[in-house]
Write a structure and sequence with these properties.
By secondary structure, the protein is an alpha+beta fold. It has a single domain, classed as Alpha-Beta Plaits (2-Layer Sandwich). The chain is 28% helix and 15% strand. A hairpin with a 5-residue loop joins strand 4 and strand 5. Helix 3 crosses helix 7. The longest helix is centred in the N-terminal third of the chain and has 20 residues. It is globular, with a radius of gyration of 18 Å. It starts with a helix and ends with a strand.
């Protein structure tokens, strides 16, 4: 058993067991939550797995174009207090021994085995057939178990009322949210994310988005040509977000 398997078993046993007794709203049972996560009616196909590749050698320190693009696309204020949602955050990593450092954006990693889905008592956290991990705000009860389970600290809780929402990206107080890989664009037939567009507009071209299962996609060609890795790869979550240069 891997370290993460042991961690996940302890977390699920301790937290979901409690949630099943005291946190589920009336009429919602765990079998319904599982059915929600496996819903085949979603506009997604298992023949595709959407993913993102970030080349840290092109990601400029001090640039926050991807963050601003995400905020604009999804109707967020861009404030960075502890109670403000952030779907992407720029992180600077530095080796204390060599002094070598680089900047990289961190967001929901869209795991193949998402721990946030494992611990959600209502099925609000779920993974689509195409690999995108989402939160259904209609059944999110704001328990925040998913936030505790996420090893990437990639989820935010909405503390304040949300005004001036975008029709394509409904948001609401009391819910958890995270990067959705611009699912509203994907379902509309577009094949680029807001963060990628913003990065390209700045001239960095550090973000690639596409179908990881298509060997002819740009992201697949990049992954085949250059070494890449996952953040916390030892957890064996098989993330949909990969990084080069780290």
């Amino acid at each position: 058993m891997s370290d993460f398997d042991a961690y996940r078993r302890r977390f699920v046993t301790g937290m979901v067991g409690v949630a099943a007794v005291g946190a589920l709203p009336a009429g919602v049972m765990l079998w319904q939550a599982q059915a929600r996560a496996d819903n085949d009616d979603l506009p997604a196909s298992g023949k595709i797995r959407w993913g993102m590749l970030i080349d840290t050698t092109r990601c400029a320190t001090g640039c926050d174009a991807c963050v601003r693009g995400c905020n604009q696309e999804n109707g967020m204020s861009g404030q960075t207090s502890p109670t403000d949602p952030q779907w992407i955050r720029k992180v600077t990593v530095k080796n204390p021994r060599t002094g070598f450092g680089f900047s990289l954006p961190v967001m929901c990693q869209h795991c193949e085995e998402p721990p946030c889905v494992d611990v959600c008592p209502t099925g609000a956290s779920f993974k689509r057939a195409d690999g995108i991990v989402l939160v259904d705000r209609h059944i999110c009860i704001g328990c925040r178990y998913c936030m505790m389970a996420c090893p990437y600290k990639a989820r935010s809780f909405i503390h304040q009322p949300v005004t001036d929402q975008l029709a394509e990206v409904p948001r609401g107080q009391g819910c958890v949210e995270a990067c959705s890989m611009c699912v509203q664009r994907i379902d509309a037939g577009l094949r680029t994310t807001a963060c990628q567009e913003a990065c390209n507009a700045e001239g960095h071209k550090a973000i690639f988005f596409g179908d990881l299962k298509d060997p002819e996609s740009e992201i697949s060609r990049q992954l085949a040509s250059y070494a890449s890795t996952e953040i916390l790869a030892d957890l064996d979550l098989h993330t949909g977000v990969r990084y080069q240069g780290i």
